[in-house]
Amino acid sequence: MDHGESRRPEKRRRRRRVALCVAAVLLLLIIVAVVLGVTLSKETNQFQSVFFSRCEKFKGHDCQKIWEAFQQAYVNQDPCDIPMEAYDPLITAAPFKPTCNRMMFWSKTKDVVHEFTEKRDCFVTLEDTLLGSVLDGLTWCGKEGSSETFTTDCPGWTDCKNNTVRSFWNRVSAAYADIACGDVTAMLNGSIAVPFSPTSIFGSIEVKGLNATRVKSLNVVLVTDEKNVTNCTNASLKDLQKELAEGIKYNCKEVPDTQIQECGSNPQKPCGSCW
User: Fold this and answer.
1) Which Pfam families match (predicted)?
2) What are the structural domains, with CATH classification, of the chain?
3) From 46's CA, which of 12, 88, 250, 270 has a CA 20 to 30 Å away?
4) Residue 220 · residue 252 · CB < 8 Å
5) Would you please indicate which residues are annotated as catalytic (active-site) residues?
């Protein structure tokens, strides 16, 4: 018997097993690709759904146009290489409108200030505007070679300077400060040792963006509580005064958190008497 012939069936079986293994691997790769594609598409759709549902609460705006301008800033881009200017088309699509004497800035007082503005129509924060409201609390980014919007595995706030989310908030904060007019209010935290930080968005962008030709004064509301550790004589607040453009008056008042809550819950009380 020819020994070569005796091994032919075994070779055919081996080739069949190899072919089956290759087919199985290809099938697995196809399944993974499909699942990944569906997952990414679902991620984009969920984010887009939130974007549109929030945007549509603001009447008279083209949310599709705003969405397209928004995506233009980061889709198919390195999430750590998104400069502030990338959001310029978005600002153009949904420009801020000045609300003189009612504009409120804040630092380390987000919960307090928004609880107040939700109850009373006295002041308007950045997060009360269309762009601020639509993207408040959300995380997003793009990736090179992809047309999707990702909400996971995005760089954190401090992971890189020009990350998608940080550049957005820097840009819209600058735009909001640029339209500030009249008497401007800032709510700062009196329960921390340094209520004004020059590296915060308020200190590094918003304060520097206040224009003396439009802004008459900056009125600081220093929110205090039973654990209060500072007051209006704090050294960091002296630094704040120095940062203001010449011609903008500065005022500071210590206001208990309980007083702000009480005023927020009393719609009969005039806004001007809240502090």
Assistant:
1) Rib_hydrolayse
2) 12-269 (1.20.82.10)
3) 88
4) yes
5) 100, 181
